[in-house]
Design goal:
Layout lengths: L1 H50 L2 H11 L7 H10 L1
Helix pairs in contact: 1-2, 1-3, 2-3
Amino acid sequence: MTALKDTWQQQRRDRQQQVQTMLLQFQQTRQTQAIQQQLERRQFCQQLSAKKPPQNSQRIARVLEPFFPNSFDSICSAIASS
């Protein structure tokens, strides 16, 4: 009976370790994606600022981004085309 209990406890620890590993990998992937998106946004606005004065496009995009977080590129595009 003790061997069965030990086996069950070991399997439980193994499953917990697997879940923790998967969660850590997921968090690292999300962090990497967030950093990559920030870099892409900066590059995009840098390209815009080369075409327009930097104070206009970047400042307006920064102000509007909290209200439209999924459309940052659209905001920058609209500013660039205006």
